[in-house]
TrEMBL record:
Gene Ontology biological-process entries: protein import into nucleus
InterPro entries: ARM-like (IPR011989), ARM-type_fold (IPR016024), IMB1_TNPO1-like_TPR (IPR058584), Importin_beta (IPR040122), Importin_rep_5 (IPR040928), Importin_rep_6 (IPR041389), RNaseH-like_sf (IPR012337)
Domain of life the protein comes from: Eukaryota
Entry keywords, A to Z: Cytoplasm, Protein transport, Repeat, Transport
Keyword Repeat annotated: yes
Name of the protein described by the UniProt record: Importin subunit beta-1/Transportin-1-like TPR repeats domain-containing protein
Claim: Coiled coil is one of the keywords in the record: no
PANTHER family from the UniProt entry: IMPORTIN BETA
Length: 741
């Protein structure tokens, strides 16, 4: 009550700074207390609306922005039922900001508050917010098109801005820091994060959990349909034929991509447009693909209708962003730096653009070095000499004075892997290797310290959903850095093989710690990947680390996270192939757990298919390379029953190569009595080609084609095999045998 009276008095007296603090405090209390704030709603809302309506002068813009933020947070806290009566009036007041006052200046403090408030109000209004989309997108697109603020600061200057959440900085060595203001893209992303799920829920009146469950089921069916046609050229060709017969435009289906919010809209929009052709083709072919029901098609149409305006707006924003950051596209320093730092990744430039730009620059330097051997370049090129790699990166920032423009020099150690792999063993001097290990050690210590700090913040009395979101973002950044550390170590093992062991000894304890049960699953995943490299590139010499990796490789086969299981599974395949006879017993011990992964009822779901096929490949490698402690005759029939595989194109050649080995050796358990298993074997091979499981030009593909041609020599046997195939399988065999695939 006292706060309400104080606010009223401050509104009347116009004490600006105090009023700003009071409004901020109210917003924080509302955000924390949530529905309990209802008791104060009727007293505070009129005062806040008064501020929004009357704080129109230049010096009151910050106050108005904070009031806008406060109103939207109160609306979220008290819920739609209470806030709905004021929602329309509040939206009208917010929209007047642009309709009556013209376009806001680029530096207007109200912009970020407005966009964040619209996102929260969208969460409250649901589908009713759709009417405002044409009005709110103008400021959003304008914000997206603003040129970013950049700065180059000395360490002394950093003290005043280190706590500013609107800025992100990259170190340019020991003394200087490059910064860019990223608040724009962040609050735009926040708006979409609110709008998208809320509009999805708004298209149906059923309870939220039922809507979500139905939506996810329908989406899974749609994904399966698109994937069915995306995997096989023959099925796509049949669908195109049906489209032509139905006098429809021949359109390609669009696959779903998790990392893009609009991917669901694009996939469903295209699928709905060709639904008649898809339904007709699926009905007339042999497959296990489940078509969408009429109700599900209507739901898909509703999603497309609701998300259409957002997709259109996103295209406009993307155009604006592309224009905004176009001057970074060809910059050899900024491109790799944006790729290396997770705070900037995806904000300025696409990853592949950055990689391509770096590759072009490396080629230029290489060409210049070979063409002009006697000309001293201003910046040393990346040569094959042992010191060339690091001197190329180190000398540039040390010899060139950075400037506040897009030519600022950014030291890019986290993008070293490609260079290391190119230059090979000995590319780093002892001094350079010591420096690299020092950096990796520092990053790993920071990784653990940050994880502890986040756990402490979760115990703090101020911990809430907002804090958790921030902590989750920090965790994502740390996981990304850990993944890049794993990439660097992968490149070092690939180049140095077991010669890297003495250096790896200096940092191995960090990754042993990552494998501890109490560490997060992402630590387990990347540490397992690193020890997979120890095994694969260290060969039999990896035995020196077996006390570190054998236990985790075995125990994490049962992990609930598919990513962790896959990393562990791959390790067993590598151990069988590269570890040598000394690991035969433990490989045999791992087989029952690998079989459990393969035979699990959920083994072929979308999230589990990769670990499952990797487990099949791992057993394949154990059978082929390290089976002395196994009963191969007992295991082979089970192995054959797990085929075909098609999801992992890296592992499929190992599986089909071993299958060819067994067939070429006339193995009785595989071929059966009087070759009675031939139809099944031909079906496995045909399905592999139908699903594009292996590139037709691969060595193992040619072996499979050769085996089919041998069977083709016996016309009666071949026709008996072909007669048991599906239409898709027959078409796939026809294509590979005729060489038209």
């Amino acid at each position: 009550m006292a706060v309400c009276l104080s606010l009223t008095m401050l509104v009347e007296k116009g004490t600006k700074l105090v009023l700003e603090q009071v409004v901020t405090t109210i917003a924080s209390v509302a955000d924390t207390s949530e529905e309990q704030f209802v008791a104060y709603y009727d007293r505070l809302m009129p005062c806040l609306k008064y501020i929004i309506s009357n704080a129109n002068t230049e010096d009151l813009k910050m106050l108005r922005g904070k009031a806008i933020e406060c109103v939207s947070l109160i609306g979220l806290a008290v819920g739609a039922e209470k806030f709905m009566r004021d929602a329309s009036e509040v939206m009208d007041m917010l929209l007047k900001t642009q309709t009556e006052g013209g376009d806001l200046p680029d530096d207007d403090p109200q912009t970020s508050y407005l966009i964040s408030a619209w996102a929260r109000i969208c969460k409250i209004l649901g589908k009713q917010f759709e009417q405002y989309l044409p009005l709110v997108m103008g400021p959003v697109m304008k914000a997206a098109s603003m040129k970013p603020e950049v700065a180059l600061l000395d360490n002394d200057d950093m003290q005043g801005v280190e706590g500013d959440l609107d800025w992100q900085f990259v170190s340019l060595g020991e003394q200087q820091n490059f910064g860019i203001k990223t608040s724009g893209p962040e609050y735009l992303q926040g708006m979409w994060n609110y709008i998208y799920p809320e509009l999805l829920k708004a298209i149906d009146t059923e309870p939220e959990n039922e809507v979500l469950a139905e939506h996810m089921y329908s989406l899974a069916k749609a994904k399966a349909i698109v994937e069915h046609y995306s995997r096989s050229p023959s099925t796509r060709k049949r669908l195109h034929t049906v489209m032509e017969e139905m006098v429809l435009p021949v359109l390609e289906l669009i696959q779903f991509v998790d990392t893009r919010w609009s991917s669901e809209y694009n996939m469903l929009s295209r699928l709905h447009a060709v639904r008649k052709a898809v339904g007709a083709e699926l009905a007339n072919s042999e497959n296990n693909i489940e078509i969408l029901t009429e109700v599900e098609w209507k739901q898909a149409a509703g999603i497309v209708e609701v998300l259409g305006p957002l997709a259109d707006a996103t295209k406009e924003i993307n155009k604006a962003l592309k224009s905004r950051f176009s001057f970074y596209d060809s910059d050899p320093i900024f491109c790799p730096s944006m790729l290396c730092d997770p705070r900037f990744r995806g904000v300025l430039i696409d990853d592949m653009v950055a990689v391509n730009t770096l590759a072009i620059e490396v080629k230029k330097l290489s060409d210049k070095s070979s063409l002009e051997p006697n000309v001293k370049d201003e910046h040393p090129s990346c040569s094959s000499s042992s010191s060339g790699l690091w001197s190329s990166f180190d000398s540039i920032p040390n010899t060139t004075q950075p400037a506040i423009d897009n030519n600022s020099e950014v030291k890019d150690y986290l993008n070293e892997p490609r260079c290391i792999e190119t230059l090979g063993n000995g590319c780093l001097t002892e001094e350079a290797m010591a420096e690299l290990l020092k950096i990796l050690n520092k990053l790993m210590l920071e990784h653990f310290n940050k994880a502890v700090a986040r756990q402490e913040k979760r115990k703090d009395e101020d911990y809430d959903e907002v804090v958790e979101e921030q902590l989750a973002n920090e965790d994502d950044e740390d996981v990304y850095i850990l993944s890049k550390i794993a990439d660097i170590i992968h490149s070092l093992f690939l180049s140095y093989k077991s010669d890297f062991f003495p250096y790896f000894d200096q940092i191995v304890n960090h990754f042993v710690k990552c494998l501890s049960p109490e560490m997060p699953w992402s630590d387990h995943q990347w540490a397992l990947c690193i020890f997979d490299d120890v095994i694969e590139y260290g060969g039999p010499n990896c035995v020196k680390y077996q006390q570190h990796f054998l236990g985790p490789l075995l125990s994490y086969l049962s992990d609930e996270k598919a990513e962790v299981r896959q990393a562990a599974v791959y390790g067993w395949g590598a151990l069988a192939q590269f570890g040598g006879e000394s690991f035969a017993a433990v490989c045999a011990e791992a087989v029952p757990r690998l079989v459990k992964i393969i035979t699990d009822p959920e083994s072929h779901t979308i999230e589990n298919i990769n670990p499952t096929e990797n487990a099949i490949s791992a057993i394949t490698k154990i059978l082929k390379y390290n089976s002395s402690r196994l009963n191969v005759q007992e295991l082979l029939p089970h192995w054959l029953s797990w085929l075909p595989v098609w999801e992992d194109m890296d592992e499929a050649p190992h599986v089909y190569g071993y299958l060819c080995d067994l067939i070429e050796a006339n193995h009785p358990l595989v071929l059966g009595n009087n070759h009675e298993n031939l139809p099944k074997l031909i079906a496995i091979i045909a399905e592999a080609f139908a699903r594009d499981a292996i590139n037709v030009d691969h060595t193992e593909s040619k072996r499979m084609i050769s085996l089919i041609r041998q069977v083709q020599g016996n016309e009666n046997m071949f026709q008996a095999c072909i007669g048991q195939l599906s239409v898709e399988q027959q078409q796939a065999l026809h294509e590979v045998l005729s060489g038209t695939n």
